[in-house]
Each structure stands twice: as structure tokens, then as C-alpha cells.
Amino acid sequence: MYERQESLGKAKDEFETVLSLAEEMDSSEKKKLLGNAHFHLGMIYKETSEKEKAEREFENCLKLIPDHKKAKELINTLG
User: Fold this and answer.
1) Is pLDDT above 90 for 39?
2) Please, what are the domains in the chain?
């Protein structure tokens, strides 16, 4: 939604909030939520040409969700 509204800064803030709130969840839900939050932060950093940050977020995603296909695809486009 924020991307369509060209408000990537707000989207980044929201995903960072998700990361901090996820600490209270059970481990299976937490891994999926955290992994996807890292993925979407990576997308934001990719969109804003912050390649190193994007790569770091995609790597964090893959640590939590090793079979995340889109993160695997995108991390290969950054190098």
C-alpha cells in the first residue's frame, strides 16, 4: 500500500515496528513474520538503491525462511 502511495519511508517504519513486536510471538509464527518483514524491507532498500542493505535483509529473510523463492531470486540480482 505504501509503495503504491510512494511512501517507502512509512513502509520501512512499519516493517521495523513488526520486527520489534514479533519478539513476543511463538517461534513458528515469529520466523514467518520476521522473515517476511526482512523480505519487504529488502524490497524497500532495493527500490531506494540501497543494495547492501537490501542484500542484508534478503539474507536475514533466508535465514528464517530458507525456501523463500523471491528472496533467493532477488539476492542474486544485487551482486
Assistant:
1) yes
2) 8-78 (1.25.40.10)
